[in-house]
């Protein structure tokens, strides 16, 4: 192991951290015992303990009596309850790498729920965009967005695996300046559980969002299902 100018414990800390981020050591599983790590890294027990304790102090590992050291489920603090920010920017600001996988994207007629939320007629088409969003390699949220066709007919020309929906709206005079959000807590069904890598009936944060432009046009209605185990939400309230 090439330590360069770094202390040995720091080399071990960084390697363990990279393996946690890559999913090699998964949340709620044990990392190797101290004696095993001593053999892997060819170091003394105090060096291994220092590396582990540093990650414990950062909230990434937790020591359990009679079990060992487990990887903690790292919650991502979401601030969108009090500010309008794209998922990509939100995740980047927390030190994670955002990724997106588009599951469905096409033009269709709205359901009664969608037409009511967007204040459009049942005969007015919308784009339906379903995306699975990741922080590093962990799925975080399944979001379904509806955009009225008449305000952005060329929306289907964009690859939302690569570009941000909010950034795209901003660049075409459809900037969202006000949102109304409703929060529920629901249980994961079979399909959602499979996509978000949680168990069936696990709790999900369920957000309904209506986004309005500065011209008071409802330009977006979205339904977002956030994992309950790796998300937390910051809410600021002023008197």
TrEMBL record:
DNA-binding listed as a keyword: yes
GO molecular function, one term: DNA-binding transcription factor activity
Top-level taxon: Bacteria
Keyword Transmembrane: no
Alphabetical list of InterPro entries matching this protein: Bact_HTH_transcr_reg, Chorismate_lyase_/UTRA_dom_sf, Tscrpt_reg_HTH_GntR, UTRA, WH-like_DNA-bd_sf, WH_DNA-bd_sf
Pfam families from the UniProt entry: GntR, UTRA
Protein name: GntR family transcriptional regulator
